[in-house]
């Protein structure tokens, strides 16, 4: 699903009114009616007190339309205008008059120095103070009002975006943002829902389709895309009857050192489970027996050293190479990596220690083939791209880095983000149970296994991250976050594939 920027949404708005021959007031009516429908469907006329807090722009206008509909349908609603500026928008003013005409009284104005009305813990607050048009930090008295709402203990539903959040930068003050239970976002999810520093301002979000111009939505390219089942299904490559193991390629997994052979084992097993035809592990001598025993399906090559990787030499012809897990960052490992990279022409997936070696000597990055996949966790990423100021800066730095070296970089986290020079892909699957030793090795293995089957590196990364997260979600069943280990994720890759083709009803039945 495309994630449109604020500028694109304003553009879509304008085009929609032109092409559909409607006024912006009608569009506002349509948008806010969707919010009303959403609430009405869930509340079914319940007489819970609803406090609608409106700003003075179009987000506030939405709030006024919503309040009018709630009133018309007999809900117990109070409407307030947080009078944060005298520059009221045209559409706000039209709806300000309309609600007066309907309810025979003006909404309660909240000005500087005014107290918040009493709000019960079981009440509902609708937050329509600021939308995507916020352009500066709210005044202190407005922040006090926002804090009052946050601390009221009532459930907060935000319209479009939690008020106080900017679409492209961090709020100056964390207290100047509404903490929503639910955000009903118009037409497109907002990028900020998925960034660690801003995502926590709403517990849940949902998109409301407000019928913006289809052609614009289809034709417009976005800088970010949300990746769920619908996006990965077209990537999935079905198998043919006469395919054989050669069709699915040969993954070579290189890494490990004394005490860290498990990392290679996990990555190799994940590559096989993801569907690689053949997997060979390249490990120091000390890893030979444990690899052969733990994973008889894989072949094993050993380094001349017992303890660590000192030279990467092999006579096989792999389709793709995944490397770096558990290999250490010592001098010998570094030289081995450098010599190997100078000769290598195969697609690569690089993780862990190999990333740290490269971060310490960036000239090695120039040796990477185009579209090499890097899978850093935040610490490794920082070593590669430098310290960032905030999540937005992190994305910009990573994009610039990916463009400079022509790489694909996956930033592992709650919403793993795959950064390609032209676009970022935000994954929706996964859970905190996956923050466990070896989880990253599994991801590297899955991506490597997918490339070996013929997925191009970007597809393999986007699909691999999705599968990895889904496997983690499926592995959670009957187990808390704490008990999940990396092997559980591998054990559920098969189910993650099967889940791709389950209809929603089947999924529900299974949950029951
Ligand atoms: N296509 C869409 O998505 C639609 C969006 N609509 C709504 O329109 C909103 C955007 O409306 P606007 O652009 O009017 O802006 P907002 O309503 O988001 O709020 C900002 C308004 O207050 C002013 N302002 C900005 N920062 C301020 C601050 N710190 N203190 C005081 N005043 C401040 C601005 O001048 C602007 O008028 C969306 O978020 C959405 O709720 C809907 O009405 C219609 C369709
Ligand atoms: K809002």
The helix/strand class is: alpha/beta
* Radius of gyration computed on alpha carbons: 27 Å
User: Which consecutive residue ranges, at least 5 long each, have pLDDT under 50?
Assistant: none
| Mean pLDDT, all residues | 95
Supply the CATH architecture of the largest domain: 3-Layer(aba) Sandwich
Q: Sheet with the most strands?
A: 11 strands, mixed
How many separate helices? Answer: 19
The small molecules bound here are:
ligand NAX, potassium ion
The tally of structural domains comes to 2
The CATH class assignment of the largest domain is Alpha Beta
Spatial strand sequence of the major β-sheet: 1-9-18-17-16-15-14-13-10-11-12
How much of the sequence lies in strands comes to: 15-25%
Number of strands: 18
List the helices and strands and how they pair.
Blueprint: E1 2-3, H1 6-20, H2 24-43, E2 50-54, H3 58-72, E3 77-82, H4 90-103, E4 108-110, E5 124-128, H5 140-151, E6 155-159, E7 180-186, H6 196-199, E8 202-208, H7 214-219, E9 224-227, H8 229-232, E10 250-254, H9 262-274, E11 278-283, H10 288-294, E12 299-302, E13 320-323, H11 331-343, E14 348-350, H12 352-360, E15 372-374, H13 378-385, H14 391-405, E16 407-411, E17 417-420, E18 423-427, H15 439-452, H16 457-475, H17 486-491, H18 493-499, H19 504-511
Parallel strand pairs: 2-3, 2-5, 3-4, 5-6, 6-7, 7-8, 9-18, 10-11, 10-13, 11-12, 13-14, 14-15, 15-16
Antiparallel strand pairs: 1-9, 16-17, 17-18
Bound molecules: ligand NAX and potassium ion.
Task: Please summarize what this structure is.
The chain has helices at residues 6-20, 24-43, 58-72, 90-103, 140-151, 196-199, 214-219, 229-232, 262-274, 288-294, 331-343, 352-360, 378-385, 391-405, 439-452, 457-475, 486-491, 493-499, 504-511; strands spanning 2-3, 50-54, 77-82, 108-110, 124-128, 155-159, 180-186, 202-208, 224-227, 250-254, 278-283, 299-302, 320-323, 348-350, 372-374, 407-411, 417-420, 423-427.
